[in-house]
Amino acid sequence: MYEWNETVQRMVDWVETHISEDTSLLKMSEALGYSPFYCSRQFNQYTGMTLRDYIRTRRVSRAAMELRDTDQRVLDIAVKYGFSSQEAFTRAFVKAFRLTPAAYQKEPRPIPLAIRQEVFSPYHYWIKERDNMSEVRLKPAEMKVEFIPAHRFIGIWDLAVTNYGDFWGNGHSCDEVSGTLESMSNHTLEGQLGQTAGWFYRDGQKGYLYGIPVPLDYDGPISEGMECREIPESEYLVFFHPPFDYLKDNGAVMSTVEEAAWSFDPGRLGFEWDEEIKQDYQRHYPEGYGYAVLRPVKKKG
């Protein structure tokens, strides 16, 4: 069912493995056993971009991460990622991020990295293996208590929407927002999963948020169009389901977890909802973590 997705993912994986080499459509097609025309057509169909453009944007983005995380010379990084000269690398970098590599290395800031394409994820392998098996019954939502220290949250709060799909359909570019947050991945709050969604409440109205939790002492730049808000420390009731088959069970898992989260009486555990926080978090990584809703609580009395 997912043969073409898997083929294109193999192309993506090949590019990522050989990103610092002299990659070409011909070399990739020879390695994968398909014609260059087939590879080119399928790659464009499933990713929405040409292979040449994908390699170019991923090279400059991977180079940016090395500029951020290492003290290598700009020239050495340029050569490593296949640029003919430091000048050629600088032109590509300025075109992608509107600043020079030297300026970025000296003072890293949020930039819209091109993220790795994903058209065939690890959980699809499980689907393939399950095709001839009987349906696995969903587990009931589980619950645990988790403490999250005071932190800052960098992202977008949109009061006009209340869910993930509508959020991206309301003028927010998924690639640009996710890529920018990815460039800040080295600042993620310890113990958290990185890019995070959720809900917030303002004057009795519910909205949707998307961003990244960072330490309380974060004082770096904030990308245009995003905000940085301080979130007090709190314990959270975490309602969750372990990893699952996204394509078959996502709706049922989300409904099960959210029904448990919204209907639970925290007084049963000696808690009450912490109204000071005014936002709930949502973790959605089906193939690795599963799905969870986190609601802040405090001890009663």
TrEMBL record:
GO MF, one example: sequence-specific DNA binding
Coiled coil: none
PROSITE patterns: HTH_ARAC_FAMILY_1, HTH_ARAC_FAMILY_2
Residue ranges of every copy of the HTH araC/xylS-type domain listed in the record: 9-107
Keyword Transcription in annotation: yes
One matching Pfam family: HTH_18
Domain of life according to the entry: Bacteria
Gene3D superfamilies in alphabetical order: Homeodomain-like
InterPro entries per UniProt: Homeodomain-like_sf, HTH_AraC, HTH_AraC-typ_CS, MarA-like, Tscrpt_reg_AraC-type_HTH
This protein's record includes keyword Nucleotide-binding: no
Keywords: DNA-binding, Transcription, Transcription regulation
Protein name per UniProt: AraC family transcriptional regulator
